[in-house]
């Protein structure tokens, strides 16, 4: 059972490393106002690295039989964190498909809520 858990976790890490993690850096660099881009990316990278540090320290303790003894149930910890992250991302990351940097910056200046980025119309500067 322990080997199965370790192999499964390695598969998750490899698949996330090929998709979600590189995409998060790209999205973090693109989803901000131009005048705040460097600060936003700095805060995002700091938050990401802080969470990685916490998980790298905590994971061995909750997995190993000598400490937390969760074993394969460690996946439920990951699942809960992923669910929270998915809901949070869904609510705070705006839709930027087919938007220019000028449109994105204008929407930030007008303080358009993230959920309304998709419906915003540049021609009249209001929601469709």
- Find the structural class using helix and strand composition: mainly alpha
Oligomer: single chain
Termini separation = 54 Å
Mean pLDDT: 84
Number of helices: 5
Cα-based radius of gyration, to the nearest Å: 19 Å
Task: Tell me how many strands there are.
Answer: 2
Globular, elongated, flat, extended or rod-shaped: what is the shape? elongated
In order across it, which strands form the biggest sheet?
1-2
Please estimate the helix content.
55-70%
The tally of domains stands at 2
Helices and strands in order:
Elements: H1 2-18, H2 20-30, H3 37-63, H4 74-92, H5 101-109, E1 120-121, E2 126-127
Antiparallel strand pairs: 1-2
Helix pairs in contact: 2-3
How would you describe the overall organization of this protein?
Strands 1-2 form a two-stranded antiparallel ribbon. It contains 5 helices and 2 strands. Strand 1 and strand 2 form a beta hairpin. The chain is mainly α. The mean pLDDT is 84. It folds into 2 domains: 2-83, no CATH class; 94-128, no CATH class. It starts with a helix and ends with a strand. It is elongated.
Descriptors:
65% helix, single chain, mainly alpha, 128 residues, 3% strand, elongated, two-stranded antiparallel ribbon
Concise synopsis of the structure shown:
The chain has 128 residues and is mainly alpha-helical. It is built from five helices and two strands, in the order αααααββ.
